[in-house]
Amino acid sequence: MSLPDTPRQSSYDVVIIGGAMMGASVAWFLADHPGFDGSILVVERDPSYEFSSTAHTNSCLRQQFSQPINVQVSRFGAQYVRNFRQFMGDDPEVPDLHFHDFGYLYLAGTQAGVDALRTAQAMQVQQGAATRLMTPEQLAQAYPFYDLSGIKLGSFGPVDEGYFDGGTMFDWWRRRARRAGVEYLRGEVTDISVDGARVHAVHLADGTRIACGTVVNAAGPRAARVAVMAGLTLPVEPRKRYTFVFEAARPLDCDLPLTVDPSGMHVRTDGAYYMAGHPPRVDDPVAADDFVADHDLWEEVVWPAIATRIPQFDSLRLHQSWVGHYAYNTLDQNAIVGPHPDLPNFLMINGFSGHGFQQSPAMGRGVAEWIASGRYETLDLTPFAYDRIPEGRRLLEQAII
Ligand SMILES: Cc1cc2nc3c(=O)[nH]c(=O)nc-3n(C[C@H](O)[C@H](O)[C@H](O)COP(=O)(O)OP(=O)(O)OC[C@H]3O[C@@H](n4cnc5c(N)ncnc54)[C@H](O)[C@@H]3O)c2cc1C
């Protein structure tokens, strides 16, 4: 999308920093909110989105989380994806979003892993999810292609777990937001003016000053940098995550659930191919522009892990691979959402730690509600509030992949 680099106005009611999935979601939900008629500017440093998390996502959705609020967020995500056209005003131009339910299968190989799956499954069912536990015998019967050595329990989600076409959702949010009057600008925010307990303006790399009533930090893995501009800290850092798309010489005769292996590898069906993901060997923070790949990871770590769990995958051909960045919340691997307590017109939608794509409908809607009415009108997102950070109170999400 080619964007202008000069804003039409010198002042906006709301400036959103970052125009990828989260920025687009806030912009669309706010433009669509009946209680809001202010001006909205989205500032994006790279309209190609080439290095954004959004461009590197695997676009999957699941109900299996360890925190009830994350299950609720994903339940709305699934409802939104399945009824996208209705949510977009029943517009016949809006397409249906493709959703491929293959289910997630978490495998536990230790007693601690078993206990975690049992606790999470009970909570998920209470929240309305369809998760069921499977013994090794049940797993072997349902999925005879796994080598289940060392596996003590599985947890499978047969409903609302799989791939969805988040890219189309992203396109339509941007398209509709612009039609509703949201302005998109190419530019990098390099400074933020704060006076007392209020943000007054953002400054761009080319020296442009833009006054604003509210700022939204939707800068993904660069969120901590943006927070620093306003004198704030955020425990969010870029961490590399690898994706591999491969072809099997002997494909399975059924869908492969998104299998979360105790080794740290995950693998699933991807049309005629398969897709696997893996963290780096050393999971340290990296520079925001560091996308250098460990080219031996596939051969030395990932493929062996896949072939161990699915012996039929002993002969594979790597088709494509990439490295993306998670915006990793080092406190508790969960989102940080809402106003900063010391700077109430600085809003955050940050720290998604690898599960932000599916959370974008609920999170964008919530931030828009907060801006429009000063409260969450639908799903209460206060568990994600910033207050827990200085208090060291963790909302620990254990089911991250
Ligand atoms: C490999 C991988 C797999 C994933 N798989 C899944 C999945 O299966 N399911 C799921 O739910 N989630 C998944 N995620 C996570 C999901 O993709 C992200 O949570 C989501 O895309 C985050 O969107 P965002 O808008 O917050 O960040 P980003 O997409 O990174 O966007 C931030 C934007 O802000 C812009 N920006 C930054 N700083 C500035 C500035 N100073 N001025 C102007 N613009 C700025 C950037 O250019 C960028 O476009 C995955 C992520 C990765 C990396």
Explain briefly what this protein structure is:
This protein is of the alpha+beta class.
Explain what you see.
The protein is of the alpha+beta class and 401 residues long. Helix content is 28%, strand content 28%. The chain contains eleven helices and 19 strands. The chain has helices at residues 21-31, 53-56, 68-82, 84-87, 111-126, 136-142, 166-179, 223-229, 297-309, 356-373, 388-391, and strands at 11-17, 40-44, 60-61, 99-101, 104-108, 132-134, 153-157, 162-164, 183-186, 189-195, 198-204, 209-217, 236-248, 258-260, 266-270, 273-278, 316-329, 336-340, 343-350. Strands 1, 2, 9, 10, 11, 12, 18 and 19 form an eight-stranded mixed beta sheet that branches. An eight-stranded mixed beta sheet has the order 6-7-5-14-15-16-13-17. A three-stranded antiparallel beta sheet has the order 3-8-4, with helices on one face. Strand 10 (189-195) and strand 11 (198-204) form a beta hairpin. Helix 1 (21-31) crosses helix 7 (166-179) and helix 3 crosses helix 10. The longest helix is centred in the C-terminal third of the chain and has 18 residues, at 356-373. It starts with 10 loop residues before the first strand and ends in a 10-residue tail after the last helix. The mean pLDDT is 97. It binds flavin-adenine dinucleotide (FAD).
